């Protein structure tokens, strides 16, 4: 390991076939958007999907996509954001810090703003939405599920992709999707299910987007899922600044590190990296209809 374990990892060998980072948070990374895009493009990551997690972040995502051709936006209230809007945020992790409770009316108001943003041409998806039972406790479940159902409806009405955040909530996420009827294009971001769930997702035609944690030593179930997922439903993402792939785990993540994860994925599938990149490239364009 280098002396400074907080230093940005070096640029990987460029991909020969350009791909997209299907899920990133440029607004949470250091440096400018231009720098991030230039570094990514230098290694063959020529497209990024910028994901909104609250109203301000969603507005920013839409504006950034409008200003930069390689950027597409998605807009939403994160599953951990919805309960904060309703119940307040006594000790939350929100970038805005603590916030007063706004009740269901405040959630409706925020959802109306997401709805308006979802209509914009540079906004290609609604998300990340879904359920997170890891960070949100039982008291937040109802608000989370109500918000998730509203996002599904918004995605369908605007004909946009749905981007799912599913943390320790597989069964309920699949159940709500079934009850509401999933949009034509649904992406499980940072796919975290096992091989059996990958089969269920495949039956429904859900895209599965793999993040840097697929490279972690303890992530064999994730690699087993990747091994059985239909190739035409597989995407890659950074979820940067989170989930930096091995061997850089713990250091800052950014879209330019996609090749590291993609190469590990090609190895799991037993195909060469160009074939993996070509599949991912066309899958991402199909998922987000760009
Ligand atoms: Zn997420
Ligand atoms: Zn995310």
SSE diagram, text form:
Blueprint: E1 19-24, H1 33-42, E2 45-51, H2 55-67, E3 71-75, H3 81-87, H4 103-118, E4 123-132, H5 141-158, E5 161-167, H6 170-180, E6 186-189, H7 195-204, E7 207-210, H8 220-228, E8 234-236, H9 258-269, H10 273-288
Parallel strand pairs: 1-2, 2-3, 3-4, 4-5, 5-6, 6-7, 7-8
Helix pairs in contact: 2-4, 3-4, 3-5, 4-5, 7-8, 9-10
The structure holds zinc ion (ZN) (2 copies).
The site of one zinc ion (ZN) has 5 residues, from loops.
Task: Describe the fold and architecture.
The chain has about 290 residues and is an alpha/beta fold. The protein has one domain: TIM Barrel (Alpha-Beta Barrel). About 40% of the residues lie in helices and about 15% in strands. The chain has helices at about 35-40, 55-65, 80-85, 105-120, 140-160, 170-180, 195-205, 220-230, 260-270, 275-290; strands at about 20-25, 45-50, 70-75, 125-130, 160-165, 185-190, 205-210, 235. The chain has an eight-stranded parallel β-sheet. Helix 2 packs parallel to helix 4, helix 4 packs parallel to helix 5 (about 140-160) and helix 9 (about 260-270) crosses helix 10 (about 275-290). The longest helix is centred in the middle third of the chain and has 18 residues, at about 140-160. The N and C termini lie far apart (about 40 Å). About 50% of the residues are buried. The model has no long low-confidence stretch (mean pLDDT about 95). One zinc ion binds near residues 128, 165, 189 and 190.
């Amino acid at each position: 390991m280098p002396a400074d374990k907080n230093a940005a990892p070096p640029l990987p060998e460029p991909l020969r076939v350009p791909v997209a980072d299907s899920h990133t948070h440029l607004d949470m990374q250091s440096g400018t958007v231009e720098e991030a895009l230039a570094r990514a493009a230098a290694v063959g990551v020529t497209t990024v999907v910028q994901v909104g997690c609250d109203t301000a972040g969603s507005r920013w995502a839409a504006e950034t996509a409008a200003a930069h051709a390689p950027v597409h936006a998605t807009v939403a209230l994160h599953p951990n954001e919805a309960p904060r809007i309703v119940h307040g945020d006594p000790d939350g992790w929100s970038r805005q810090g603590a916030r007063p409770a706004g009740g269901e009316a405040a959630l409706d108001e925020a959802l109306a703003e997401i709805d308006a943003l979802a209509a914009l041409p540079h906004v290609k998806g609604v998300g990340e939405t879904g359920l997170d039972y890891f960070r949100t406790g039982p008291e937040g479940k109802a608000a989370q599920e109500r918000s998730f159902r509203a996002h599904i409806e918004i995605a369908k009405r605007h004909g946009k992709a749905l981007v799912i955040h599913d943390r320790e909530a597989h069964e309920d996420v699949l159940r709500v999707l079934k009850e509401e009827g999933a949009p034509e294009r649904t992406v499980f971001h940072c796919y975290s299910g096992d091989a059996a769930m990958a089969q269920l997702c495949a039956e429904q035609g859900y895209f599965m987007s793999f993040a840097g944690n697929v490279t972690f030593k303890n992530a064999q179930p994730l690699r087993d899922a990747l091994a059985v997922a239909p190739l035409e439903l597989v995407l890659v993402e950074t979820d940067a600044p989170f989930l930096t792939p091995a061997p850089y785990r713990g250091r800052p993540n950014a879209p330019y590190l996609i090749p590291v994860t993609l190469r590990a994925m090609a190895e799991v599938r037993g195909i060469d990296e160009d074939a993996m990149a070509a599949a991912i490239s066309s899958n991402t364009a199909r998922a987000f209809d760009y």
